[in-house]
Design brief:
The chain is an alpha+beta fold and 117 residues long. It has one helix spanning 6-31; strands at residues 34-43, 48-60, 64-69, 72-78, 83-86, 92-99, 104-112. Strand 3 and strand 4 (72-78) form a beta hairpin. The N and C termini lie far apart (48 Å). The mean pLDDT is 83.
Length: 117
């Protein structure tokens, strides 16, 4: 019977965290300068979506991500507080974090202008 090593459990968690950080870094590199068709805000209570803007772009600065549509910034979040994941169809990205423009946690979806299959 194999022994359970408690310390190996914690080292596996750190390894998974590094993998998640690497994936996040790869997605962020791909997002910089990416044009978006439109941006929506998901409401977790009603499961509905509200369009925040159209014809925008995703930009990265040293410490934050900015989604701008027209002349308006519709989402700005610090990178260390950001969670993200691409949509399954790879036609957009989910962004989760404290939006500095409104001052509270938000879940937005930015749909790419050009979708490569």
């Amino acid at each position: 019977m194999a022994k359970l090593n408690l310390f190996s459990f914690f080292s596996d968690k750190r390894k998974n965290k590094r993998i998640d950080d690497d994936i996040k870094a790869d997605v962020l590199k791909k997002l910089h300068g990416r044009p978006v068709k439109y941006v929506t805000c998901r409401n977790d209570e009603t499961y509905g979506e509200t369009i925040l803007g159209r014809d925008g772009v995703i930009n990265l600065t040293d410490d934050s991500i900015i989604v701008a549509c027209g002349n308006n910034i519709v989402f700005r979040c610090k990178l260390d507080g950001l969670d993200l994941g691409e949509l399954l169809a790879l036609n957009g990205v989910n962004l989760y974090g404290v939006d500095e423009t409104v001052g509270h946690y938000r879940h937005i979806v930015a749909y790419y202008l050009y979708h490569s299959k």
